[in-house]
Amino acid sequence: MARYANPLVQGTNSLVNLSQITEEEMKVGSLQAAVTRWPFFVFLGGSMFCLLSSSICHLFSCHSRCLNIQLLRMDYVGITVMIITSFFPPIYYIFQCEPHWQLIYLGGITAMGMFTVMTLLTPSLSSGKFRAFRAMLFSSMGFFAIVPAIHGCIVNWSNPHRSITLAYESAMALSYITGTLFYVSRIPERLKPGWFDLAGHSHQIFHVFVIMGALAHYGATLLLLQWRDRVGCNGTV
Ligand SMILES: [Zn+2]
User: Fold this and answer.
1) Is there a cis peptide before residue 7, judged by omega within 30 degrees of 0?
2) Exposed, middle or buried: residue 113 (CB in 10 Å: 0-12, 13-18, 19+)?
3) Which cellular components does GO assign to this protein (predicted)?
């Protein structure tokens, strides 16, 4: 009897376990299938484009005066593309269950970014006279993020990951703002002209802060992706 009883009991347990696992796997499987990766890849693609255009610009900018001007424009276009694409993962994943907000925020930043790119590619606006205007365009794209950030915080107030994601994004904002301040003020070369012609001038410092900002944003994006892999629109898994 014992020989038959055990397999039956085990079989019943196995069936229960199997049904539980299958149910859980189906839940997780269905949610994983629902979380798309394209906003994450848009950000990665934009960052790669930014770093590539910056590398090409600074590698070949010594070729000629004419090419130098064209390449510097590409440098700023690259940064603009990275700022626009940075918005895609947080806006998409935070407002995944409210597509109209995705459309409003992503449409808004894309329109602002396209205007900035057009301004950067307009020769008359690329001179030193419009340096502050260009800085204002970069800053306004950064400040635009405050609106969805506050909105996202209110919507996810009870989410335990809110503080850490906010800390990452604040680090990103601080990096971009500090970088822009160096860009506008032209410190330290204006204090000691000629000392920083090869290394340590404001443009290099600006790029370092842009990379630091992108890294902080990458950290925040990974957290958002992990969260959306577990939590769907209909509640916690
Ligand atoms: Zn540069």
Assistant:
1) no
2) buried
3) membrane
First to last CA, the chain: 42
SS3 label, residue 111: helix
State mean pLDDT over 60-75: 85
Query: What pLDDT sits at residue 18?
Result: 41
Q: What whole-number distance in Å separates Cα of residue 142 and Cα of residue 138?
A: 7
**Cα(230) to centroid(ligand 1), Å:** 39
d(CA 172, CA 108): 20
- Ligand 1 centroid to Cα of residue 136, in Å, is 17
pLDDT value for 25: 44
Task: Give the chain's length.
Answer: 237
Q: What is the mean pLDDT of residues 224-228?
A: 87
What are the pLDDT digits (tens) for 143-157?
888 888 889 888 878
**72 C-alpha to center of ligand 1: Å?**
7
Mean per-residue pLDDT of the chain:
81
Q: Residues annotated as binding site for Zn(2+)?
A: 58, 203, 207
* CA–centroid distance, residue 203 to ligand 1 (Å): 6
- C-alpha 235/C-alpha 237 separation (Å) is 7
